[in-house]
Amino acid sequence: MSDTVLSVRDLRVVFETRRGTLTAIDGVSFDIARGEILGVVGESGAGKSVTGSAVIGLIDPPGRIAGGEIRLRGERIDNLTPEKMRRVRGRRIGMIFQDPLTSLDPLYRVGEQIVETIRTHTDLSAKAARARAIDLLTEVGIPAPERRIDGYPHEFSGGMRQRVVIALALAAEPELIIADEPTTALDVSVQAQVITLLKRLCRERGTAVMLVTHDMGVIAEAADRVAVMYSGRVAEIGPVESVVRAPHHPYARGLMGAIPTLSDTAERLTQIPGAMPRLTAIPPGCAFNPRCPNVFGRCRAERPEPLPVDRTRVACHLYDERGEAA
Amino acid sequence: MSAGAYVEVEDLRRVFDVSKPWLNRVIERAPRQTLKAVDGVGFTIRRGETFALVGESGSGKSTVARMVVGLLPPSAGEVRIADISMTDPRQAAARRRLRARIQMIFQDPYASMNPRWRVGAIIAEPIRAFNLIQGEAAIRERVGELLRLVGLHPDDARKYPHEFSGGQRQRVAIARALASQAEFLVGDEPTSALDVSVQAQILNLMRDLQDRLGLTYLFISHNLAVVRHMATRIGVMYLGRLVEVGDKATIFGRPRHPYTRMLLDAVPDLAHIGRARTPVSGEIPNPIDPPSGCTFNPRCPHANNRCRAEVPKLIDGVACHAVEEGRLGA
Ligand SMILES: Nc1ncnc2c1ncn2[C@@H]1O[C@H](COP(=O)(O)OP(=O)(O)OP(=O)(O)O)[C@@H](O)[C@H]1O
Ligand SMILES: Nc1ncnc2c1ncn2[C@@H]1O[C@H](COP(=O)(O)OP(=O)(O)OP(=O)(O)O)[C@@H](O)[C@H]1O
Ligand code: SF4
Ligand SMILES: [Mg+2]
Ligand SMILES: [Mg+2]
């Protein structure tokens, strides 16, 4: 078997609302290999978190997975019973969210929470689990872990709390970690520490990581490959150098140009006119067509499928079978 | 007033009382606690320039901004704008006239708008408050003009704030700020809540308006790339103090303060694909009980005994003993 840890194919997620069925994720496909960090970027509402939630089986009604397949090491996990999925989550898939307090129970000492996770998923004795928890806290860079293990979440600073959450996510030695904006609430100096940590753990343990963030800087630094999402679809996916330095899709190009960088000398930032459509008003054809500087007739009628272009896959009619850019 | 200075901030200080309630203090025998949110900050802003304050969360940027615009009284120090003191009670009348020319834009425009007012009324509010234009028709005209100026449509005046996206609401906030013929805008993280593509629209708009109307900006952000894009000059704050001030080229090209250097190294940037960031040690200390001497000393690779004892003064734009002593290579 290959090194693919996570494989998502044609994922569709819908929300049933009073105004009808809204399609939040519409045919998303990607893979993540062992030891690989896939960055998922895109504007607010693009579907990054819903995609992550689908993978960990946390789409709650009125939402549901309406199509496609999610495989973990080849095994389908999108159609498991809630009970089975709960075991996959935690044991085989770890989670890190933006707000560490959503993952930590304020009433329990952090050590108890890590030990409980370890004991739920392994046969370690209480004593061995505690030793293991201290190792984990050491590994994520908590100073004096023998002492801090008995602290409550509120006794940790934001950055330290996020480390505890990472330790918790690692406790069961998962094959995959879904990290949704893990550093967004942190200051840059602390953010740098957390990203460095995540990268190191991923390399050393071979964990596959889906890293969801708004911050292209974090992606450039941490990710091996990047998926750019727009309106519930993947506009472009490929190696980080290609997608960040030489994006093909007009949206990805606009997005990269819109981001001020520390080395940019441009007087003006690239401006993508308008805003991403609401789920109730996704235009036919290419969802980006009303904002696209390169739009042509076909874009308004026919939806572009992701096709290989150079080292990436791009969903844009500018790069059709003829494989050439306009 | 120094030549060309439009805003002058001198030795500004703000202390907050963060003690527990009186009863708790008595029961727990806890002493009164204070927090020096801003501790001796001084800078000047020239007419037509963009002065940016950067620094991590809690460094005191917003507190400085609120004191500069007069929303928060300083514990000590002085703010002068266009030669008028924002603190001297004898200049109260002049200050009232000045107020119309100073406006603030916040991170969350929604929080600063009355959700039950139409956008037209929201934008017209400063016009009415300062009695700048007489007659409903003339006011409506001006509101339409302002909406157009920020890239919206005059018809949008009839809508309510919730009918707009985040970026559009920030445009409304800017239109309202400009309604009073503001010449000095203070933006406190005005684009931090926005998506990058919308942020680009707002940053471009702010620069266009500055060019067209000769506005002066105090721009606050924790995003160094955004600051680099917008600022003429930059002040770097750490735990309530200004640790380095300089023009953009100096701060980004030849940063001198160890904290500025650390911050620049820590920034994730598009240009740094796969680059490992310089690991930063430690976190910002508790502001209620800050380290003695230079407050950066526990995290600083160049700290010595003097740094732990003596507060460095801002000399030639840098507050650092190591720089002053020539211990740091340029
Ligand atoms: N419970 C829900 N009911 C209805 N719509 C929902 C629900 N949860 C999410 N959505 C919609 O699904 C779309 C994708 O949302 P998602 O949270 O994945 O965006 P995102 O890319 O993570 O954005 P952000 O960057 O703001 O976190 C959005 O349009 C959102 O409004
Ligand atoms: N009203 C207040 N009462 C008590 N403490 C306050 C008050 N306002 C601010 N502070 C404290 O003053 C310090 C500076 O806060 P300030 O909001 O100015 O920081 P900032 O640089 O704007 O941070 P951020 O980037 O998070 O907005 C912080 O430690 C904060 O907790
Ligand atoms: S398919 Fe058309 S509208 Fe969509 S991004 Fe490509 S050129 Fe633009
Ligand atoms: Mg999200
Ligand atoms: Mg602030």
From TrEMBL, chain A:
Highest taxon, organism lineage: Bacteria
SUPFAM superfamilies named in the record: P-loop containing nucleoside triphosphate hydrolases
Keyword check for Nucleotide-binding: yes
Residue span(s) of domain ABC transporter: 8-256
GO biological process terms held by the UniProt record: peptide transport; transmembrane transport
Record's subcellular location: Cell inner membrane
GO terms for MF: ATP binding; ATP hydrolysis activity
PROSITE patterns found in the cross-reference section: ABC_TRANSPORTER_1 (PS00211), ABC_TRANSPORTER_2 (PS50893)
Keyword Cell membrane: yes
Gene3D superfamilies: P-loop containing nucleotide triphosphate hydrolases (3.40.50.300)
Keywords for the protein's UniProt record, in alphabetical order: ATP-binding, Cell membrane, Membrane, Nucleotide-binding, Transport
Family annotation (SMART domains): AAA
Pfam families: ABC_tran, oligo_HPY
GO cellular component terms attached to this protein's record: plasma membrane
InterPro entries: AAA+_ATPase, ABC_Ni/Peptide_Import, ABC_transporter-like_ATP-bd, ABC_transporter-like_CS, Oligopep_ABC_C, P-loop_NTPase
Protein family membership: Belongs to the ABC transporter superfamily.
Protein name: Oligopeptide transport ATP-binding protein OppD
Organism: Methylobacterium gregans
TrEMBL record, chain B:
Transport as UniProt keyword: yes
Organism per entry: Methylobacterium gregans
GO cellular component: plasma membrane
SUPFAM superfamilies attached to this UniProt entry: P-loop containing nucleoside triphosphate hydrolases
Main location: membrane
Example of a GO biological process term: transmembrane transport
Keywords per UniProt: ATP-binding, Nucleotide-binding, Transport
Protein's name in the database: Vitamin B12 import ATP-binding protein BtuD
Residue ranges of every copy of the ABC transporter domain listed in the record: 7-264
PANTHER family per UniProt: D,D-DIPEPTIDE TRANSPORT ATP-BINDING PROTEIN DDPF-RELATED, TRANSPORT ATP-BINDING PROTEIN
Membrane topology: Peripheral membrane protein
Gene name tied to this protein: btuD_8
GO molecular-function terms, A-Z: ATP binding; ATP hydrolysis activity
Entry-linked InterPro entries: AAA+_ATPase, ABC_transp_ATP-bind, ABC_transporter-like_ATP-bd, ABC_transporter-like_CS, Oligopep_ABC_C, P-loop_NTPase
Family indicated by similarity: Belongs to the ABC transporter superfamily.
Cellular compartment(s): Cell inner membrane
